[in-house]
Design goal:
The protein has about 800 residues and is of the alpha+beta class. The chain has 14 helices and 45 strands. The strands form eleven sheets. The protein has an eight-stranded mixed sheet, sandwiched between helices. Strands 21, 22, 23, 24 and 25 form a five-stranded antiparallel sheet that branches. The two termini are about 40 Å apart.
Length: about 800
């Protein structure tokens, strides 16, 4: 929601003056950590009826994994009977160009709906892993992929058949370069005649296939030395782009994770991921197939600007590693949308990423010459974001749109593929994401956070340019879809104490019609402490650090309050927003802490999502350093502005938050008196490649970045009280991380620490008993270390 411009000092004063909710209802630890169904299960998938007159949604049953479907109506949802389910659609739909028909994926099966008559036609039944659904260029047929194979359904004949059959195998009919075989064919006439007859029959079938669409295509063979890792069929059925990788590449040594509590009664092990740098992503190749002839051509990456320049050359040299030769290894960007065809099949764009992830290219393909045509390059000396990577074609089959962080923030751009001219449709210190275009390509709708970084609305902008317009005023929009007639939005939204709900909003703007409130009566009856959104001044200069403050409505004059600092996980995650938090249990715990006399600050430290690329990459080669500076600024703010007690500061968090708890206690031991590190990373050399190599490169060429960023290197500095809590079957951050830290602390004869282990929990705890035990320990840690005896 747009607010008038304020100076930072005015904004701070206004935010500080806001009172928390009066007389909050006490929450017990047992209830806060119990099964979250007591809150009320949120709305999950939601979708418009085919005629746009109704809205359906799915919701989990309380105390059950079963999902039910409801017909939404403001305040009066109706359960859809089982007998009706076969007549409705789903949230996974694809429209034709003129919105006359739509494809529906429901329960793994594909249907087509006529949007004039409402008639529903089933296309497949029981097809496994059906994906990449699209209309053909003439819209007389539907194309889709199962595994690597492409199929086409003809509307007129109702026949389903293969459209392209790529195979990672040798062509059984290809002549082998074998002197013994050649000798046999030369000497034995009968064998030569048999071969000639087979070749003639295949040639005749190929001739007929080119003019007779009823004959199924033959497989396309790529040899047995590659794997097929992706493919995309042109809507006109003429071309197939195939992504391959070398077969048998070294995947690195997998870990073995022990499980001690099992149904068998015996200890067991399971394979888990490889560590960073031990399994470099396998480079990929791009191949183009002309489906009229099955001719396969390599599409080289040589044309990509900067492809031969190694941004890690200096680090590689310092580590005495051989320099890279030729092109940097690349991969076609992960995800289903890495290859985008224009609707008529005449143009295609491919997103390519360097394996070092410091370059991202979007390139067209010259289909006649099998060559790349660079369209856009995004570089970052740290790493290019995997989020905000959407792109596609407008209906004119000439204009490409894409998201890019080239300005420092994710924004929407348009590019003329003929002239290469580009122009920005959005700009400013905010981020555009989740773009949806009207079917005529005239208007783009997107998520935007223009007012403050944590305030998400739906914005609209005209393709011809002009001002960006905020459509919604809900503050916590999660996602949205356009109605079939494109006059309304179906919006998923949430708030601090409201799990995801749905509402409709006219695209012209105005009040939202809220369709659901799935919260339980018990939860709604409670008065919660609303977090105050505060902008903490940064000692690094520039933008403030946004945070959520939990405190009593009125601070007692002269009283000093013990401080608890919360650290969200994932690093690249936004928790200081108007949306319902992923950390809803922790939010209730913060209510309990305030009830017990604490003040709590939850910060979107540098590396968090929603603040632009400079904020995200500030931690490059120095994880735990800028973030700790932000938390030290947060402590100063709490002391100077919220009557916080500088001598009694605690910190806690899980995953990345656990890592940061270690860094706080071990790098600022005179500030942080106690902390709880939950499922923490203690040594980044043990984490996965996809996340860690972006930020710290790899241990073999950048060992100093790992040493600087790993808490286990600072264990000698520990002075305060430490709780380590970890699930023993955590297959994300391994339990081994905490065990190694424990051994380090033992060898250093450290006191005032403990390790709590949870034999049946993975990274995300499931059992309420484990949640309770963990947070009981955190609460008791703060009570005995951050309070004077009379206050406990």
């Amino acid at each position: 929601m747009r607010t008038p411009a304020l100076t930072l000092s005015t904004l701070l004063a206004a935010l500080i003056a806001l009172p928390a909710a009066a007389a909050p209802t006490p929450i017990t630890l047992d209830q806060a950590m119990s099964n979250p169904d007591w809150i009320g299960t949120p709305v999950e998938a939601a979708w418009w009826s085919w005629d746009g007159k109704q809205v359906y949604y799915k919701q989990k049953r309380t105390g059950s994994p079963v999902r039910d479907t409801y017909l939404a109506a403001a305040g009066k949802p109706r359960l859809v009977a089982d007998a009706e389910l076969g007549k409705i659609d789903s949230a996974d739909v694809t429209y034709d160009r003129d919105h006359k028909r739509m494809l529906v994926l429901r329960n793994g099966d594909l249907f087509e709906r006529d949007l004039k008559s409402g008639a529903l036609t089933q296309i497949t039944r029981g097809a496994a892993r059906l994906e990449a659904v699209q209309y053909s260029a003439d819209e007389r047929a539907v194309q889709y992929r199962i595994g690597s194979d492409w199929y086409v359904w003809d509307r007129a004949t109702k026949v389903v058949g293969p459209a392209a059959l790529p195979r990672a195998a040798k062509d059984p009919n290809a002549a082998e370069d074998d002197p013994y075989r050649a000798t046999e064919l030369r000497l034995i006439g009968h064998l030569q005649r048999q071969k000639d007859e087979r070749d003639a029959l295949r040639a005749r079938t190929d001739e007929l296939r080119r003019v007779d669409g009823s004959i199924a295509p033959t497989p396309v063979y790529f040899g047995d030395k590659v794997t097929i890792e992706g493919s995309s069929l042109s809507p006109d059925g003429r071309w197939l782009l195939v992504v391959t990788a070398a077969k048998g590449a070294d995947k690195g040594r997998a870990g073995k994770m022990p499980r001690y509590v099992t149904e068998s009664g015996y200890e067991e092990t399971e394979d888990v991921r490889v560590r960073v740098g031990r399994n470099m992503p396998v480079p990929q190749q791009l191949k183009l197939v002309d489906l009229r002839t099955n001719r396969v051509q390599d599409v080289p990456f040589d044309a990509l600007p900067g492809i031969t320049v190694d941004p890690l050359a200096d680090l590689r040299a310092a580590a005495k590693k051989d320099p890279l030769k030729g092109n940097r290894p690349v991969r076609i960007a992960d995800g289903a949308d890495a290859i985008e065809w224009s609707a008529d099949g005449s143009k295609v764009a491919v997103m390519v990423r360097a394996v070092d992830n410091k370059d991202r290219w979007i390139a067209g393909v010259d289909l006649a010459a099998a060559k790349l045509q660079p369209l856009h390059r995004l570089s970052d000396k740290a790493w290019v974001n995997y989020d905000n990577a959407e792109f596609g074609w407008l209906p004119d089959n000439r204009t490409m749109w894409y998201l890019s962080e080239e300005s420092g923030y994710s924004h929407l751009y348009m590019l003329d593929s003929a002239t290469k001219a580009t122009r920005a449709l959005t700009g400013g210190k905010w981020e555009a994401s989740d773009v949806r275009w009207t079917h005529d390509g005239g208007t783009a709708y997107m998520l935007c956070n223009r007012a403050t970084p944590g305030d998400y609305e739906v914005c609209a902008v005209n393709a011809k340019g002009g001002a960006v317009r905020e459509v919604t005023q809900l503050d916590g929009v999660e996602k949205f879809t356009l109605s079939p007639n494109e006059n309304q939005l179906l919006v998923h939204w949430s708030a601090s104490y409201t799990p995801v709900q749905i509402a409709t909003v006219p695209v012209s703007g105005g009040a939202a019609t809220k369709l659901t409130d799935t919260r339980s009566a018990e939860f709604k009856a409670r008065e919660w402490i609303e977090p105050q959104y505060v902008a903490v001044p940064s000692s690094a200069g520039g933008d403030p650090v946004w945070a959520k403050l939990y405190r009593p409505a009125q601070l007692e004059a002269g009283k000093k309050y013990p401080i608890v600092m919360f650290v969200h996980g994932a690093g690249y995650l936004q928790n200081v927003s108007k949306r319902y938090s992923n950390y809803f249990r922790e939010q209730m715990f913060h209510n309990l802490l305030v009830q017990k006399g604490y003040v709590v600050l939850d910060m979107d430290y540098r590396a968090s999502k929603g603040y632009g690329s400079a904020w995200r990459t500030a931690i490059y080669r120095q994880m735990g350093h800028p973030e700790l500076d932000d938390y030290l600024d947060g402590v100063k703010y709490m002391v100077n502005q919220q009557q916080g007690d500088a001598s009694n500061v605690g910190v806690y968090g899980g995953s990345y938050g656990g890592f940061m708890t270690f860094m706080a206690l071990m790098r600022a031991p005179d500030t942080f008196k106690a902390g709880a590190a939950l499922r923490p990373v203690t040594d980044w050399t043990t984490y996965n490649h996809g996340y860690t190599a972006n930020i710290l490169n790899t241990p073999d060429i950048d060992p100093e970045a790992y040493k600087k960023s790993s808490p286990i290197e600072y264990a000698a500095n520990l002075k305060g009280h430490l709780l380590i809590a970890h699930g023993m079957i955590d297959d994300n951050v391994f339990y081994q991380d905490s065990v190694r830290m424990a051994q380090r602390l033992i060898e250093m004869k450290k006191d005032h620490w403990e390790l709590a282990s949870y034999p049946l929990e993975r990274h995300g705890y499931v059992q309420p008993e484990a949640w309770y035990d963990q947070y009981r320990r955190i609460y008791q840690l703060f009570e005995r270390t951050l309070k004077k005896p009379a206050e406990q």
